[in-house]
């Protein structure tokens, strides 16, 4: 398995993997966004200096997973830190250490940036207990829920 930082020309692959994540999280309902909108957003954000994506690829080059990362800053966090926005491993590659490799890439990148920590918004338990357990097994601690306020 190989982990690499996505480039701007990987935006279609990034969009495909993130759309698969959205579809899985939305099931059994259809996704709330279109694949075209996800593609447009991926192309826009991969050119941003505060957003990165890391791709996992099998030895044969088959896309296996993705992690997206944002730069953040907060006084409570002691300065600048990273937030994992999306983490997705395709079903055939799960339980093979792909997610752990993606998180390690984010840790290495964050340390190189001088960040104080990584954060991730965990999905609600019990439906997503396996996801929360995965993060906890990889060193993350629960901080509490997050809320959102759409600005559009």
How would you explain this protein's 3D organization?
The protein has four helices and five strands; from the N terminus they run E-H-H-E-E-E-H-E-H. With 152 residues, the protein is of the alpha+beta class. It has a single domain, classed as Aminopeptidase (3-Layer(aba) Sandwich), CATH 3.40.630.30. It has a five-stranded mixed β-sheet with strand order 1-2-3-4-5, with helices on both faces. It has helices at 11-26, 35-45, 98-113, 129-137; strands at residues 2-5, 51-57, 63-74, 79-89, 118-120. A hairpin with a 4-residue loop joins strand 3 (63-74) and strand 4 (79-89).
Strand content: 15-25%
Indicate the mean pLDDT. 92
Output the number of helix runs. 4
Shape: globular
Indicate the CATH class.
Alpha Beta
Q: What is the second-level CATH architecture?
A: 3-Layer(aba) Sandwich
- How many domains? The number is 1
Query: How many DSSP E strands?
Result: 5
Low-pLDDT sequence parts: none
Looking at this structure, what is the CATH superfamily?
Gcn5-related N-acetyltransferase (GNAT)
Question: How do the helices and strands follow one another from N- to C-terminus?
Answer: EHHEEEHEH
Strand order of the largest sheet: 1-2-3-4-5
Oligomer classification:
single chain
State the end-to-end distance.
40 Å
From the helix content, strand content and strand pairing, which structural class follows?
alpha+beta
CATH topology type: Aminopeptidase
Tell me about the largest β-sheet. Answer: 5 strands, mixed
Features:
152 residues, alpha+beta, Aminopeptidase, 5-stranded mixed sheet
């Amino acid at each position: 398995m190989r982990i690499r930082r996505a480039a701007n020309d990987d935006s279609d692959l990034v969009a495909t993997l993130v759309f698969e994540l959205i579809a899985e999280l939305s099931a059994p309902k259809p996704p709330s966004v279109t694949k075209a909108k996800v593609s447009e957003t991926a192309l826009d954000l991969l050119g941003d200096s505060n957003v990165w994506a890391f791709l996992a690829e099998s030895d044969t080059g088959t896309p296996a997973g993705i992690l997206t990362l944002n730069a953040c800053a907060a006084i409570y966090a002691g300065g600048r830190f990273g937030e994992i926005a999306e983490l997705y491993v395709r079903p055939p590659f799960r339980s093979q250490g792909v997610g752990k490799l993606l998180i390690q890439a984010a840790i290495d990148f964050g340390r190189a940036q001088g960040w104080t920590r990584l954060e991730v918004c965990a999905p609600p338990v019990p439906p997503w207990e396996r996801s929360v357990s995965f993060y906890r097994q990889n060193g993350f601690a629960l901080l509490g829920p997050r809320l959102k306020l759409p600005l559009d």
